[in-house]
Amino acid sequence: MLHDEFGPEYVITVHDSYVGMEGFLLIDNTALGPGKGGIRMTPDVSAEEVFRLARTMTWKNALAGIPFGGAKAGIVWKGGSEDRKKEFVQAFARKIKLFTPRLYIAGPDVNTGEREMEWFVEATGNWRSATGKPANLCMKIFGRPGEKCGIPHEFGSTGFGVAHAAAVTAKFIGLDLKNARVAIEGFGNVGSFAFQHLHQMGARIVAVSDSKGAIYNEKGLDYDKLSAVKSQGMSVRDYPDGSALSHDDIFGLDVDMLIPASVTDVITDANKHTIRARVIVEGANISMQERIEEELTARGILVVPDIIANAGGVISSYAEYRGYNPKRMFDMVARKITSATAQVLNESRKEGRSPRVIALALAQQKVKDAMARKRAK
């Protein structure tokens, strides 16, 4: 695991022998504020994976211009009943309670959502220890009868931000978004909302995938029909009007824009050579290793990195933390994502360096300045 001038500050492994829970908390850097990052629950989550995600959050929060540092958490979850999942989440929450919310604020991630965040804050006893809570879960200082205080991950702020990053990118390369052919890898909380908002902007979503396969229609897919298929527990492959493909086939489609929007490391050495998209907008965290991103950039593919494109979720988290309503949150996401994407792309063109190199340089300087101020106190 990398240790450098930025962190990590805390690497915590926790275990609850009573329920059999094992988990990890990585607080990377708190110079700008408490570490912010979601909790993922997967069978093979590791401290190394959680660290990579925590470092990404450090840069993402800095670029978004919000007073959060970087962190991430993971719980080893091999599946089970709702009651057992609640036991795991609350056991983890109690183990790391010491760090929340002064040094760590939780949020949704893979296999966690508003329900799990409610369980988390129940166990810590602190409303501010997590964001992404149910809309009707209110803090006493905000709460009035009928008021909505939580901003659930299911509001789709990450996918909303991805759509805005894609729109800025299309304009940057001279692509008419209304004629753009878009493929979205993943149809969960990020991919489904990116689809919805890009469709509203006029883009043609020609392909979507999930873990079981992909569906392709050159004329475009219908969001409502696809959502109905998924709501019935079926795969996107079961969409009635299109060509069913394997999951990996989506990477090789001839499209203008590819949006990986599922899990970590989906673009690999095995499929990187098949990519024909002009632009990749990283809707998911760490869609590929940086060396692969560099190879694609060298081939002339414009890659908009995750630390810009999918920051909508953490911006939403900050809005909830401050007690903003959903409308104010969405306005903030649109403003910040649009500004950051435009700044990075313009400086990338001006300096002849990749968007990730530019974005990292900007983020690192912000964190270094904050660290210097902290030391000077």
Structure description:
The chain has helices spanning 47-64, 82-96, 114-124, 157-172, 191-200, 223-231, 290-298, 306-309, 312-322, 326-351, 355-376, and strands at 10-16, 21-29, 35-36, 39-42, 69-76, 104-105, 181-185, 204-210, 213-216, 243-245, 257-260, 279-281, 302-304. The chain is globular and about 55 Å long. Helix content is 40%, strand content 16%. α1 packs across α11 (355-376). The protein is an alpha/beta fold and 377 residues long. The chain has a seven-stranded mixed sheet, sandwiched between helices. Strands 1, 2, 3, 4, 5 and 6 form a six-stranded mixed sheet that branches. The chain contains eleven helices and 13 strands.
What tags apply to this protein structure?
13 strands, 40% helix, 377 residues, alpha/beta, six-stranded mixed β-sheet
Counting helices, strands and paired strands, the structural category is alpha/beta
Element string (H = helix, E = strand): EEEEHEHEHHEHEEHEEEHEHHHH
Spatial extent as radius of gyration: 20 Å
Runs in which pLDDT lies below 50 for 5 or more consecutive residues are none
The number of helical runs is: 11
Q: What's the helical proportion of residues?
A: 40-55%
Residue fraction in strands: 15-25%
Instruction: Output the strand order for the largest sheet.
Output: 10-9-8-7-11-12-13
Number of strands: 13
Largest sheet: 7 strands, mixed
Distance between the termini: 30 Å
- The averaged pLDDT comes out at 94
Rough outline: globular
